Amino acid sequence: MPTRRLVLQAGLATVAAPALVRAQSSLSGTITLMSYAGIFQDNYTKAVVEPFQQAHPGVKVNYVPGGTSAQMVGSARAQKADPQVDVTIMDVTTSSIGNSEGLFEKLTPAEFPVLNELLPEARAAGGDYGPAVTFDHLVLVYDAALQPPLAKLADLWRPDLKGLLAVSAPPNIQGLALTAMVEKMEGGDHRKSIDAAIRKLKALAPSVSTFEPNPDGYSLILNGVVKVATGWNARSQLYADQTGGKIAALLPPEGSVFQINTINLTAGSKNRAAAAAFVNYALSQPAQKAFTERMFYAPTNGKAQIDPKAIARTAAAPESRARMIDLDWNEVLKVRDQWNNRWRREVVAAR
């Protein structure tokens, strides 16, 4: 099972040897990295972008916030004839679309030897294209003052939470993940049917304040608009630290789902050598260690030596891995439109 392999390899120790970075220190020019804004941008810049630039003084990395993954793949599509972005970090469900449209390059171990250090799941996520650069998982984020505190996924249907929920509906990937989680909670298997999940979510709809949290569920909780929201573990852990514990995150005992971000090299990059060097570095042991310890995304490089206290708060923690539902995002892509339509017609319409 993929999650079991993650258990065995995520914490392996190694000697960090960025020889490739040193060998390419003559690189120069500017590359543009497009990915998520806000705290992701702030922390990725500190943990990965700035060390890369220190190793390559001649290269400037221009970080451009790209909005959602869907917006990023849309930008890449619009620029296909004249790419303005060299590297993109986005969710695997949308990078797969970009791969199929020829927006991103295939990567080979011959040119990107770091691929051989990645966990099998990370390589499999992108196929021959950009691999996973981070792992995360869906959690329920809630006001830490909530009484009683959340204890399970089924608590979303508590009467006292009516009107106090922010649930991200599809096409947001959180909604797709929640569908699989609720189907399992109801005793079903998302690979066969989501009928049970849709029925249960339809019953939840009147309790939902918004199916499009803006700017996000974490902010709505901190501003007192809602008490509970769907969210990602890494951001939840960071917000909990930054707010002195005002929000908390629950990994439901009923199970959760891995979220995967891939790193993608744009086909036709105008500074391909520097862009390729950045991809190599982003997947390297030092970069993976730095970002995991700073923002609690689980590493995809199986040889990265991570502080055990940081690993314990990530998707690579034993408790997290044991609760992961076996979900293949490439298979979910095939039924994504069907799931989206059912949410729109049956769930959101019932609010």
Q: Compute the number of helices.
A: 15
CATH fold type of the largest domain: D-Maltodextrin-Binding Protein, domain 2
Q: Unreliable segments (pLDDT under 50, ≥5 consecutive)?
A: 1-24
Number of domains: 2
Strand content: 15-25%
Could you give the count of β-strands? 9
Question: What gap, in angstroms, lies between the N and C termini?
Answer: 37 Å
Write down the overall mean pLDDT: 92
Helix-strand pattern: HHEHEHEHHEEHHEHEHEEHHHHH
The share of residues in helices is 40-55%
Shape: globular
What does this protein structure show overall?
The chain has about 350 residues and is of the alpha/beta class. It has two domains: about 5-135 and about 260-315, 3-Layer(aba) Sandwich (D-Maltodextrin-Binding Protein, domain 2); about 135-255 and about 320-350, Periplasmic binding protein-like II (D-Maltodextrin-Binding Protein, domain 2). It is built from 15 helices and nine strands. It has helices at about 1-10, 20-25, 40-55, 70-80, 90-100, 120-125, 175-185, 195-205, 215-220, 235-240, 270-280, 285-295, 310, 320, 330-345; strands at about 30-35, 60-65, 85-90, 130-145, 165, 210, 230, 245-250, 260-265. Strands 1, 2, 3, 4, 5, 6, 7, 8 and 9 form a nine-stranded mixed β-sheet that branches. β1 (about 30-35), α3 (about 40-55) and β2 form a beta-alpha-beta unit. α3 runs antiparallel to α12, α4 runs parallel beside α5 (about 90-100) and α8 (about 195-205) crosses α15 (about 330-345). The longest helix has 19 residues, at about 330-345. The two termini are about 35 Å apart.
